[in-house]
Structure formats: C-alpha cells, structure tokens
Amino acid sequence: MPATASPFTDIARARRSPRRFLPTALSSSDIRGVLEDAQTAPSNSNTQPWTVHVVSGAARDALAENLLRAEEEGWTSPDFTDGYGEKGIYFERSQALGASVYRARGVERSDRNGRRAAVRENLEFYGAPHAAFLFMPALGDGVRTAGDIGMYAQNFLLSLSSRGLAGIPQTVLGVYADTVREFLGVPAELKLLFGISFGMADPAAPVNTLRTDRVPLQRSVVLHDTPGVLDRP
Which of 15, 95, 208, 216 is geometrically suited to a Cys-Cys bond with 161, CB 3.0 to 4.6 A? Predict the structure, then answer.
C-alpha cells in the first residue's frame, strides 16, 4: 500500500465511477502497482482464473474505432446474458441510474441522438487513456469464476482509488466480446466478462459530480444471533 494511501474505509467509501477522464497516461509503475494489487484477490481453490488485457496508446485508439464500428453496424456478440427484469427493484434501480447519468450530462429523455452519443462514449472508454479487459475460462456454469473476477476487479478499482486515480467497470464492453477478442488475439475459449476504463478523472466534467446512493443495510442484510449491528440509523 502506498505511504500516501488513506485508510481502507475512506478509500472504499470515496470510490466513484467517473464518466469522463483526462487524457493523461498513467505511469508504468502505477499501472503495474494496480495490477499487482489486483493479483492478490482471493479465488475459488486459488484458481486465479482471470486473464487481463490492458490497452493504451495506439492500441486503445484502434480498439475504440473497432467498437464504434461494431455499434454502428449493430454487431453485438455478448458471451453472457444481461438484463434487470421487466419490473421490480433491480429494474427500478437501473432506470434511476440511467436517468441520473443523462440528467448530469444535460441530455433529455426525448433526445435519442444525445442518448446514443452517451452510449457510444462507453466505447471510447469515456476518454480514459487505458482500459483493462477481464476474461475468464468456461469452468462449470461460470458463476464461481465470475465471482472471482469480480473480486479481482474490486481490488483493481480500490487500488486505483488509493493512488488518487479512478476507474469505471463497463459491462457494455462485454457486449462486443468477439470484436475485442479478434482485436486482441484472445482465444474463443476465454469469455469477456467486462472491461474497466481507468486513468485520472476529469474534475471539471459535470457528469463526474454524480453520486449514487446505496440502500440501507436493513434492506440487504439479514443477521442471525448477531445483535446490535443494525441498531444505528
């Protein structure tokens, strides 16, 4: 942990997912440090099932062009299904986030072109100078492996935050799995779960002022013979 890092609680609670980055490339030592921190993540039977490809510079720009072209042609190739249901709390939360993001960007709900432009910014990594793509092997039904990848990604994101940097996990990048695999030369047996765009957040971007809430613990945690934990408001 860098000497300048804040306590873990401060880092975890201050972490945000910016949607606009500065173009400044990170140092090789910072990127290596983040990758080393991520590598310490736990995994089922220590399988360490992650394969991670990081793109920067010309490779990052060329891949963004390929992703934008795939979006324009309507060519999607997700390895995993997606969705939040047609109604219910998960659907409502996803809709609320979408509305907040568009509002922060000044995009009206009726502005179809503006909404599409916002989506396409995903495929340009929100201007971030780097992007990491997290691939996983097909082991069993994939659930445990995906959980391992999630823990790797959380280490990755918190390591960025500890260094004053930022990243945003993007499931939409996984919608174009074949495009990414072909560009990076990744074998078909490795499945793309999602990507993380990362760098330095743009402090002047209005969309980066967005703050999402979290439900109270009482709505997601059930305690058994563990008194007092949820007594505080």
Answer: 15
